[in-house]
Amino acid sequence: MSPMNPIDPDTPIGPGVGEGLPGAGPRRTRRAAAAPPQYVLTEDTPVYVISVAAELSGLHPQTLRQYDRLGLVCPDRTAGRGRRYSARDIQQLREVQRLSQDEGINLAGIKRIIELENQVTALRSRVAELVDSLEGAATALQQREAAVHASYRRDLVPYQPPTPQSSALVVWRPKR
After folding, report:
1. DSSP H/E element including 77
2. What is the pLDDT of residues 113-129, one digit of tens each?
3. d(Cα 95, Cα 110) in Å, to the nearest integer?
């Protein structure tokens, strides 16, 4: 018979566990520690310190500080006010560098370009929300219209205006 687990008497310790060692009695089994919270890393998760961000973007750390002061790339801050850059921030740093060096655009122009791109992104998102809302309203309207049509009484006859050639009078009496 297997030795009993002193922590959880209902769970036996496997055969041979703790046996054969001098002075060893039944070993305690470890309970699994509470699983750490699952962190989801996205491209917006701030994980890079300024030195790593500078290396990844190919810029000097002082340049990154200057871009932060100018509002070109604004990283998140830690509790101690340290900068933390995300993958999206690194991508934006590379774009600022490309616009500055390859296109010859000054930093004020780059800031305006970034603002306009952010505005376009926000507007596209808003348009998508409005389209979804409109499609939902159209679907609801069609459902309501179908419900109204389904509620029509089938014994009603649509009115047709008399034609000028006919002078006959038609009287309709419902069956009782």
Report:
1. strand 76-77
2. 999 999 999 999 999 99
3. 9
CB atoms within 10 A of CB 146: 10
Identify whether the C-beta of residue 13 lies closer than 8 Å to the C-beta of residue 3: yes
Answer whether 13's CB lies under 8 Å from 5's CB. yes
Confidence class for position 101, pLDDT limits 50, 70, 90? very high
Mean pLDDT across 25-31? 54
For 7-22, write each residue's pLDDT tens digit: 555 555 554 444 444 5
DSSP states along 93-127:
HHHHHHHHHTS---HHHHHHHHHHHHHHHHHHHHH
The pair of structure tokens assigned to 81 is 């006010």
Contacts of 75 (CB under 8 A, 6+ apart): 46, 50, 53, 68, 83, 84, 85, 86, 89
> What does the block give as tokens for 99?
């616009």
The single residue listed with the structure tokens 């419900």 is: 147
